[in-house]
Amino acid sequence: MMIFGKRFNLTRALRSRPFTLLWIGQAISNVGDDVFAIALAWQVLLMTHSGLAMGQFSWRQPYLA
After folding, report:
1. Is residue 12 part of a domain?
2. Is residue 3, in this structure, part of any structural domain at all?
3. Is 1 among the domain residues?
4. Organism's domain of life (predicted)?
5. How many CA atoms, within 13 angstroms, populate the side-chain half-sphere of residue 21?
6. Residue 7 to residues 2, 15, 65: CA-CA distances in angstroms?
7. Which one, of 32, 33, 13, lies nearest residue 23 by Cα?
8. Residues 6 or more apart from 40 whose CB is under 8 A from it?
9. Side-chain half-sphere of 2: how many Cα atoms within 13 Å?
10. Which of the four, 14, 20, 22, 52, has the lowest number of CB atoms within 10 Å?
11. CA distance 20 to 34
């Protein structure tokens, strides 16, 4: 990856404590978002007993928020 003509070095960026904390926090947040989406789809399946309803919800879920 080139930024302003210089090569971006991830290891150098991760030496910065604030950047590392931000990166880890964002990674945890992304995992949480995915787990939440799976839990919502699972709840739809438990409430409706319909794989079709779960599939439709999972397909439309990104557009609901």
Report:
1. no
2. no
3. no
4. Bacteria
5. 3
6. 5, 16, 37
7. 13
8. 57, 61
9. 2
10. 52
11. 21
For residue 6, give both structure tokens. 């210089």
The Cα–Cα gap between 59 and 42 comes to 13
Cα–Cα distance for residue pair 45/39, rounded to 1 Å: 10
pLDDT tens-digit profile of 10-45?
788 889 999 999 999 999 999 999 999 999 999 999
pTM comes to 0.71
Query: How many structural domains are present in the chain?
Result: 1
Ranges assigned E (strand) in the chain: 2-3, 6-7
Domain that holds residue 51: 19-59
Q: Phi-psi bin for 5: left (phi > 0), alpha (psi -120 to 50), beta?
A: left
- DSSP character at residue 23: H
